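Morning!

This is the sequence you dropped in the shared folder:
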Amino acid sequence: MEREGEMDGSSKEALMEEAPPRYTASPRLPCLPPQLEGLLMAAVVMLILTVVIVTFLLLGLHITETHAEAVLRMTIHGPDGEGTPQHLSMSKKEWTGTFAVRDGLNASAVVVYDYSKLLVGYRSWRHRACCITRMDQDNIPGLDAVTETFQRRQAEMKEHGDKAVPLADRSILGTSINILCSTVPVYWA
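The structure's back. Tokens below.
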């Protein structure tokens, strides 16, 4: 009787008699010389690499766009998603952003951020005046702060009368603010 783990001699002999498998070179494409085959492989690798890079760039662009929309939505609606929605209109040609905001009960106002002139304009439809202020390029005020500042300024103007002198030179205003305030006097806030 044989012990476990020991093989009988006949199975060893059968393994020894079998020839080892033959390894052959991979078949070449019959119509391509080796130099052209290497060039073709390099072109295929470059094509695959280009497709991968373009895919990641497009994915990154999509993620960036989605993030920017989410940030804008949080800015307009507030971090918790609540609050009065404002409407935004952007003009890349003039570098302006226009917001329609609420100004009290059943009233609205328009806030124009003019990034080319670094001005912010505000016109409430309840008041017969426009207010403008300068903004710092590195520290652009938020919509809530701008709206509050302009509403406070218009309330002061209403209380103290129109003792303020309106802006005489409208050439410093951009096109959007000029159109917004074309029929009313413009004051610095």
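Headline: The CA atoms of residues 121 and 145 lie 13 Å apart.

More detail when I'm at my desk.
O.
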